[in-house]
UniProtKB/TrEMBL annotation:
SUPFAM superfamilies: ADC-like, Formate dehydrogenase/DMSO reductase, domains 1-3. Belongs to the prokaryotic molybdopterin-containing oxidoreductase family. It is found in: Cell envelope. This is Formate dehydrogenase. It comes from Antarcticimicrobium luteum.
Length: 942
């Protein structure tokens, strides 16, 4: 009998059209192909999302988050219309209003402030990707109170990198994946630079390179490392300085590299008690001076033909000047950094530290590589080859989010430089628009004038006390106290301190808090319960202490309930975005690149892209740069701004297809620019010439290419700063020199922590009696901040989170998987389930971040696992440290940058009977959107 096969369509129609744009499910900004189909009603819908193989970042690779973007665009928790609060703040009681009413309310609040006291607007944005625009808008408004999320994310890493070598990890640079033979990660969770790092690790391991992971927790990248170093949290800097000690003692540092490209030969004044002590010797043009080996005379560092001497000292006017390398040898050859001395504190055997140092030295010097590629340096010297030391590093929040994070990050950058592995084949490479010396970045501005723009950009890099953001009376000019004696080098601001400072009226009261995509009532706060109380607190007259709150988000997050006015944003496939070289570009080390997002699908709700809303508000407020002399709008919307705005002549948000459509980097606006981006897959790329690919800070060909691209206005060669002189200028002020003086209670701290050479010190949360266990939180690879765990696909990967406890502590406390513990800190307690983890530092517990949700938020059912078994460690953390007994409350942050010290948390754990749900449990909030259906499905296509 014949058997009839079923009729199957073996090649179904995948989509009617493919639209190429940029992912927004994390900060990698990968290229995606969005497949579209016409639905039953004829409207186009997203069918599925895949990676764009032509894109320079991901080359077609796409992670779970990126693929799940379709569920983000169809999420039940999407806000549907502007909202006006009608119940008590925090209740979630709103009424929907029109956009015209919403913008009239916002204008009515913001216009009087701008005319009378613009500093009373605090405008802070979260993990958005349009900070060059939002910062410019705030500058035009005139408030000094603007920053984004970096202050509680990784400002230590970024700032330490800029001051030391003109760039850092993550968006500033990457390993040379083609040539590196040893890749070492410090404190990197798997959400960071996800697809590029996964691809890179796969490439280097395929050709036999080794990976070492230094992290208290062995997950993600560390789980596939060839060697795992389970360090004690907060001691990374001590380990790095011990590695430097071993390498220097064995002579395994690159002296030629140090002499040519760093300030190792620059001369430092040894004049105790004077205002010149510790400063560099400079010529009349301000250039650091070195001793030329051939002539033995003083010469500027960039003098053609100069051969800087690493050993020569100099006497002048009774002062001895010693090279930086002398000072480094004197410090780091000390036995206090010997592996045997630091091993117990770091939780790593001395033999292991020496083994890692030996492997670094072997690969860097015995396996050095050479490329037969000519290049010319900034002194005019021609080189026949490019010499590479194939050791590369990567680090992120794990070493950054500590109160010693700035100096720890500095130490890691110095380690790279001593090895000669930065900007060479096989080492760490900068991504355009980096590298940039710290001196050419803006300095922070803070002068607020009624009815006028701010006097310059809000954020920047101070070079000394004269650049601090202080009022004439010495008080902080910014609500977050950025760029003050409390945290002088806070280049990203202190978003985590805005609400607590505004509530306390310290340094002054504000009127309106305006936030975008910053879930400060929950996941992004240092202490969730405390922040919610501050947002709802009233004064003696019954008015809210923070009078007005405007919030914009695409989703019904916890923060929505605490707003007085909600401006609903679109999802990322429904709007224009600009991933700009002025902001957070998508470059790789071989090219300059930027990208756009564009509305591949139209919203089905009464929502608007936040950037276009800001432009509308700016026009209504009459902000300069947004209206012409007649008060008419200059830009129709954000797409119009992207094309036609010029930050300076010829330089706009996008670098591609400028002028007549052939220009790159520089050129007048091109009306067809966005169309060209869309035709090209949503991105633009300009490759660096081969002879300019390495040695970027000193390579004449790269400097000329960068000028042509508009990255610099003129060549900017510079030396890497092993010794950071601006830090010494703050120490001098603390010693009593200079016109600007720190308050007495901060003098000792500034002198101790702002050392121009990297140091390590214990953080402030040591010694709290009974709290001895380290507690960490990190984001999983499948989530990114709050918005991932309301995604129907991603929830199936992380629907709730346990507290991971090492085997030793499990045994000590008689615990088994599924038991519950009470976790306490000086600030609060939580009750949560546990799970044993062997690959974990013996005295460290940890959990995933952003899984726990407040009942009523994100369109989740009240009994959702995220709300009943999910939890946050934030309840145990605080913006301030426990009282010390000196009458002062010290910030829980890095004393140099103000970086939130999330990872300094110390706790104690104790076994308890299982509660009905994780604690603390807060009352549900009302939601402006309905809860999602039990089954989320829809038909795409006819």
């Amino acid at each position: 009998m014949s058997h009839r096969q079923p009729d199957l369509e073996l090649s179904p129609k995948v989509s009617d059209e493919v639209r190429k744009t940029t992912c927004y499910m994390c900060a990698c900004r990968c290229g995606i192909n969005v497949h579209m189909k016409a639905g039953p009603d004829g409207k186009e819908q997203v069918a599925y999302i895949e990676g764009n193989r032509d894109h320079p970042v991901n080359k077609g690779v796409l992670c779970a988050k990126g693929s799940a973007g379709i569920m983000q665009v169809n999420s039940p928790s999407r806000l549907r219309a502007p909202l006006k609060r009608v119940g008590p703040r925090g209740s979630g009681a709103f009424e929907e209003i029109s956009w015209e009413e919403a913008l009239e309310i916002a204008t009515g609040w913001l216009k009087p402030l701008r005319d009378e006291a613009p500093e009373k607007l605090a405008f802070f944005t979260g993990r958005d990707q349009s900070q060059s625009f939002t910062g410019w808008w705030a500058q035009q408004y005139g408030t000094p109170n603007y920053a984004a999320h970096g202050g509680f994310c990784s400002v230590n890493m970024a700032t330490a990198g800029i001051y030391t070598m003109g760039g850092a990890f993550w968006e500033f640079g990457q390993p040379d994946w083609d040539h590196t033979k040893l890749f070492i990660l410090f404190g990197v969770a798997e959400d960071h630079d996800s697809n590029p790092i996964k691809m890179g690790i796969g490439r280097i391991k395929a050709r036999g390179a080794r990976v070492i992971g230094v992290n208290p927790v062995r997950t993600g990248y560390n789980a596939v490392a060839d060697d795992w170093v389970g360090i004690t949290p907060g001691t990374d800097g001590l380990l790095i300085l011990s590695l430097i000690h071993v390498l220097m003692k064995s002579g395994k540092i690159d002296l030629d590299y140090l002499a040519r490209y760093t300030n190792a030969p620059c001369l430092v004044a040894q004049a105790p008690g004077t205002d010149q002590d510790g400063l560099l010797l400079r010529d009349g043009d301000g250039k650091p001076l070195v001793i030329d080996r051939a002539s033995g005379t003083l010469t500027p560092f960039d003098q053609p033909g100069a051969r800087p001497d690493l050993s020569a000292t100099h006497e002048q006017d009774g002062v001895t000047y010693r090279p930086v390398l002398h000072l480094m040898a004197e410090r780091y050859l000390s036995d206090e950094y010997a592996p045997e001395v630091v091993a117990e504190r770091c939780g790593i055997p001395a033999q292991k530290i020496r083994a890692v140092a030996a492997e670094i030295a072997r690969v860097a010097f015995d396996e050095a590589i050479e490329l037969d590629r000519e290049w010319t340096d900034f002194r005019g010297e021609k080189h026949a080859r490019m010499i590479g030391r194939p050791v590369s590093f990567h680090a992120m929040r794990g070493i950054s989010a500590h109160a010693n994070g700035f100096q720890t990050a500095r130490a890691l950058h110095v380690l790279q430089i001593l090895l000669g592995t930065v900007e060479v084949p096989g080492g760490f490479r900068f991504k355009p628009p980096y590298p940039k010396p710290s001196e050419i970045h803006p300095k922070p501005h803070c002068k607020a004038t009624p009815g006028a723009p701010l006097d310059g950009p809000h954020l920047g890099f101070v070079q000394g006390p004269e650049d601090l953001a202080l009022k004439p009376d010495g008080s902080p000019a910014r609500i977050d106290k950025a760029f003050t004696w409390d945290n002088p080098m806070s280049a990203h601001g202190l978003m985590h301190m805005v609400i607590s400072n505004a509530h306390a009226g310290d340094p002054y009261k504000i009127d309106t808090l305006f936030m975008y995509m910053a879930n400060m009532a929950w996941n992004s706060s240092m202490n969730t319960k405390g922040v919610m109380e501050m947002l709802t607190d009233t004064d003696e007259s019954g008015e809210y202490v923070i009078p007005r709150i405007i919030y914009s988000d695409a989703y019904s997050s916890e923060m929505v309930a605490y707003a007085d006015l909600v401006l609903p944003d679109t999802t990322y496939l429904e709007r224009h975005d600009c991933i700009s070289l002025l902001d957070r570009p998508i470059c790789e080390a071989d090219a300059a690149a930027d990208a756009i997002r564009w509305p591949v699908v139209e919203p089905d709700r009464d929502v608007r892209g936040f950037q276009s809303v800001l432009i509308d508000l700016g026009v209504r407020l009459g902000l300069p740069g947004l209206v012409d002399a007649d008060g008419k709008a200059i830009y129709a919307d954000y797409a119009d701004y992207i094309v036609n705005h010029q930050r300076k002549p010829g330089i706009g948000p996008l670098a591609g297809w400028r002028g007549d459509g052939t220009g790159a980097g520089r050129g007048v606006p091109n009306p067809g620019q966005l169309d060209r981006y869309i035709e090209n897959g949503g991105f633009f790329v300009s490759h660096i010439p081969e002879e300019a690919a390495y040695y970027k800070p000193w390579n004449a060909a790269y400097q000329d290419w960068a000028v042509g691209m508009g990255l610099y206005d003129s060549p900017q060669p510079y030396l890497f700063q092993l010794y950071v002189e601006p830090l010494r200028r703050f120490q001098l002020a603390a010693e009593g020199h200079g016109e600007r003086q720190p308050p007495e209670h901060l003098r000792a701290r500034i002198k101790a922590t702002m050392d121009p050479l990297p140091i390590w010190y214990e953080t402030d949360q040591q010694g709290n009696e009974g709290y001895t266990v380290n507690a960490l939180t990190q984001r999983p690879m499948a989530m990114y901040h709050s918005w991932g765990s309301q995604n129907a696909w991603l929830r199936q990967l992380h629907g709730h989170n346990p507290l991971y406890v090492p085997t030793k502590l499990m045994r000590d406390h008689g615990l088994r998987d599924g038991d519950w513990v009470r976790v306490s800190s000086p600030h609060g307690q939580i009750t949560v389930p546990v799970m044993e983890m062997a690959a974990l530092n013996d005295n460290t517990v940890w959990t995933w971040n952003a899984i726990g949700k407040r009942k009523g938020a994100w369109a989740l059912e009240p009994d959702a696992s995220e709300a009943t078994r999910g939890f946050l460690l934030n309840h145990l953390i605080h913006e301030l440290l426990p009282p010390r007994g000196d009458g002062l409350r010290w910030a829980n942050s890095d004393p140099i940058t103000g970086q939130a010290a999330w990872f300094d948390l110390k706790v104690k754990i104790e076994k308890v009977a299982p509660p009905a749900e994780s604690q603390p449990a807060f009352a549900p909030i009302a939601s402006p959107v309905r809860t999602g259906p039990d089954v989320l499905k829809w038909k795409v296509g006819k």
